[in-house]
Amino acid sequence: MKNKAPSITVVVSVKNEAKNIVRCLKSLGPARRVVVIDSNSTDETVSLAKAGGAEVMQFAYSGGYPKKRQWALNTLNFSTDWVLLLDADEVVPDALWQEISEKLTGTSPYCGYLITKGFHFLGRKFRFGGFSHSAVALFRPGTAAFEELNNAGETPLDMEVHERVIVNGPIGRLQTPLIHEDFKGLSAYIERHNHYSSWEAGVRYCYLKSGHYGNSTIRPRLFGNVQERRRFLKNLAVRVPCEPWWWFLYHYVVRLGFLEWRPGLIASQIRAHYISQVRAKLYELKLRQRYKTPAGQ
After folding, report:
1. What is the distance between the alpha carbons of residues 229 and 232, in angstroms, rounded to a whole number?
2. Continuous segment of H or E residues that includes residue 158
3. Any bridge partners for residue 149, and if so which?
């Protein structure tokens, strides 16, 4: 890499990420500052983060808004020109640092940038299947905040799941993807998505009941940016019958996931199962609300 990246603080959100954090931090050399936001990990995450040169802060969630990453944006004193949000299972390759350096050197016309999270699964870098997605992960401090979604469900999640960053200003796009690869194994991946499905069921319940996701949310627009387009399509998907099968066909057939061989089939099946869980938990939530039955009974 010829040039160091511009003035950037990287915020990495973690909990029990000992198997991922070292690889993530090793890719952040060009950053001016690296802050790890932990939630009282019980493995070696904190010691490994400190050994990797990161600052470590602890976050104690008390419910509601903000969650972990928005809390970090509210709490940290940013002296850099830009903020980059990462998860511990994400790596910034040299080519992306180079592109960041080229785009942000001088006066950028944008307040934030969409970055693709390149999907790696079961040891394979996916080219097909549509599992990689883009989100605003790089932005100027003070110009962006996570959307605040209504949720009728109960989950132990203290970090944003599928909430997106809303930027007050123009948004650009970087072409080089992050490397998104989790080394904690398939069991952890499925367990995490079990929690995600509970969260999403609660969000869907509120949306179907009120007609909106919350007070400050991404606008659903078919011809908007990628985040707005995804929200528009999700608004349609929540109402269609046989939704899990449609998602399987989308990933495995329409987006050519079958070309990824066995990993493509497994990833498509997991996606369909995730949506099945969401729909089942949504149905349960409707029953519980109808009869005012407490959770767990």
Report:
1. 5
2. none
3. 214
Helix 186-210 and helix 261-291, axial crossing angle in degrees, nearest 10: 40
Residue 259 DSSP one-character state: G
- Separation CA 195–CA 226 (nearest Å): 25
DSSP bridge partners of 292: none
C-alpha 72/C-alpha 9 separation (Å) is 12
Number of residues that this document lists for the chain = 297
Per-residue pLDDT of 89-146, as tens digits, reads 999 999 999 999 999 987 889 999 999 999 999 999 999 999 999 999 999 999 999 9
Rounded percentage of the chain residues whose pLDDT exceeds 70:
97
Rounded Cα distance between 201 and 285, Å, is 8
Assign 262 to helix, strand or coil. helix
Tokens of 66: 């903000």
What's the predicted TM-score (pTM) here? 0.92
Calpha distance 180→92 (Å, rounded): 9
Q: Which residues, in sequence order, are CB contacts of 181 under 8 Å at separation 6+?
A: 89, 91, 120, 121
- The phi-psi region of residue 21 (left if phi > 0; otherwise alpha if psi is between -120 and 50; otherwise beta) is alpha
Residue 215 to residue 203: CA distance in whole angstroms: 13
Cα-to-chain-centroid distance, residue 178: 12
| Cα–Cα dist 82/112, whole Å | 9
CA 288 to chain centre: 29
Residue 253 is classified by DSSP as I
Q: Is 297 exposed, middle or buried (0-12, 13-18, 19+ CB in 10 A)?
A: exposed
Predicted local distance difference test score (pLDDT) of residue 66:
94
Query: Which tokens hold the place of 44?
Result: 């070696």
Q: Where are the alpha helices (DSSP H) in 53-134?
A: 68-75, 94-104
